[in-house]
């Protein structure tokens, strides 16, 4: 086997999933994560269809995920007086199985922690590819050389910036921001009933506010030109929300008052990653949102887990030859990841005009919505998924 030492940046979902498969095939894996520990809770994420289920079954984690799944949440859209206008079914938003991001990361981490090296509270500062591999400098740890580097560090990927170029060249802003605040109602729950609950949402032109949703106690989405603020400046982000929603009625004044009391708060752009020349360069590859992310597009978690499965399987099938494996990975995922480029959650959920809001509400009750749901299910399975574990085992037995 060639190229046996690998470094993965990111310990959310794509990173530990990739670590599992690479370690399974005999690679020596190090994972670096800038957070001091695994992030608990987080937004609710989902899997849908036989392809996602097959990968999770082959990882041996499907039962664990089922045990920690969240309930199903229907979202009722209301006017300023609270009168019901439309329903977005939780069967559409939650896929076949929904789980908190932090819970999924913990499941994957437990499967890899004893066999992979994790460096928490650290990050990559420089990558230099040479004849022997990639020389990596860290913020805290001593510099080391690895055979291969994988960026699984999200839509604002540092690995992508260091290896491919600045973020502005690959991340397209889609005209909206979103924010979540307050722990999901299922945070901290490891067992219990999978009840069906209801969230309530209200639109003003170009703005959406949701109370009691599955991703957090509060969620906001709003249209805006790109804003200038620090990504880690929570106070500035809260002020932006307060100003943007100052004249919105319904329960929004109450929500904004409560916002100051939530420690868990996150705000970011709705953006799409576009990598026209592929997800690999030399000895570096991108997996998950760093390569094909589309914020709140509905396919990110499944794409990350499938992408990790594919690149590890192709690498093992090629005997560690990254030039062969990376080319195959680019070809396979470029086709499959197209599903991430067909949506803009902001434009759909926060239309910019009153007429757009009325049309969206009508759409939820129409046959077209059922067709969109069916397309979503079909797209999630639109890949010829190889049985890499069996292929690699057969090759090693010869």
UniProtKB/TrEMBL annotation:
FAD-binding domain residues are: 4-317
Which superkingdom heads the taxonomic lineage of this protein's source?
Answer: Bacteria
This entry's Gene Ontology molecular function terms read:
FAD binding
Q: Which InterPro entries match?
A: FAD-bd, FAD/NAD-bd_sf, FAD_aromatic-hydroxylase
Protein name per its UniProtKB record:
FAD-dependent oxidoreductase
């Amino acid at each position: 086997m060639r190229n046996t030492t690998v470094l993965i940046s990111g310990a959310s979902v794509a990173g530990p999933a990739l670590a599992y498969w690479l370690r399974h095939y005999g690679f020596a894996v190090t994972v670096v994560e800038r957070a001091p520990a695994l992030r608990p809770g987080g937004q609710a994420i989902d899997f849908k269809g036989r392809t996602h289920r097959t990968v999770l079954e082959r990882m041996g984690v499907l039962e664990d995920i089922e045990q920690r799944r969240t309930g199903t949440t229907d979202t009722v859209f209301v006017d300023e007086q609270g009168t019901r206008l439309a329903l977005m079914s939780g069967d559409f938003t939650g896929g076949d199985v929904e789980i908190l991001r932090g819970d999924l990361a913990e499941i994957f981490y437990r499967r890899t922690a004893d066999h992979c090296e994790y460096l928490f509270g650290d990050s990559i500062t420089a990558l230099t590819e040479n004849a022997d591999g990639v020389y990596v400098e860290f913020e805290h740890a001593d510099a080391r050389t690895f055979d291969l580097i994988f960026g699984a560090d999200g839509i604002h990927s540092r690995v992508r910036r260091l290896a491919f170029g600045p973020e502005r060249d690959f991340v397209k802003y889609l005209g909206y921001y979103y924010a979540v605040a307050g722990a999901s109602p299922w945070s901290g729950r490891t067992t219990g009933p999978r009840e069906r609950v209801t969230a309530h949402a209200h639109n003003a032109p170009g703005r959406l506010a949701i109370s009691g949703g599955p991703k957090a106690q509060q969620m906001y989405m709003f249209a805006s030109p790109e804003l200038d603020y620090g990504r880690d400046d929570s106070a500035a982000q809260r002020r932006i929300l307060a100003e943007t929603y100052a004249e919105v009625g319904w329960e929004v004044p109450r929500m904004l008052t409560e916002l100051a009391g939530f420690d868990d708060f996150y705000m970011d752009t709705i953006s799409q990653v576009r990598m026209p020349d592929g997800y690999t360069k030399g000895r570096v590859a991108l997996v998950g949102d760093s390569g094909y992310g589309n914020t709140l597009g509905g396919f990110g978690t499944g794409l990350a887990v499938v992408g990790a499965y594919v690149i590890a399987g192709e690498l093992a099938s090629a005997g560690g030859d990254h030039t062969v494996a990376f080319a195959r990975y680019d070809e396979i995922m470029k086709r499959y990841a197209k599903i991430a480029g067909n949506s803009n959650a902001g434009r759909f959920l926060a239309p910019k005009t009153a007429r757009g809001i009325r049309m969206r509400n009508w759409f939820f009750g129409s046959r077209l919505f059922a067709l969109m749901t069916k397309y979503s299910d079909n797209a999630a399975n639109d890949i010829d998924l190889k049985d890499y574990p069996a292929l690699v085992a057969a090759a090693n037995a010869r």
